[in-house]
TrEMBL record:
Record-linked InterPro entries: Peptide_deformylase, Peptide_deformylase_sf
Organism of provenance: Gordonia amarae NBRC 15530
Gene field: def
Gene Ontology molecular function: any one: peptide deformylase activity
Homology family: Belongs to the polypeptide deformylase family.
Protein's recorded name: Peptide deformylase
Amino acid sequence: MPLKDLLVLGNPVTITRRGDPVLHWPCRPATTFGPELWNLLCTMFATNRAADGAGLAALSREWKPIDHG
């Protein structure tokens, strides 16, 4: 799917905020980069647009924070 579609497809969802217990649930690692992951990305971009550009973040034990200071 073309990258330009990423910006127009997908439906926004409610943003889960810090403190919600669901944020402590383990998630599956992305191992297959197919339609399911593409749909998730489209949903994330649609949610970002609907929230007037609010940032979306994900944490993982494998990722390290970046110091922007």
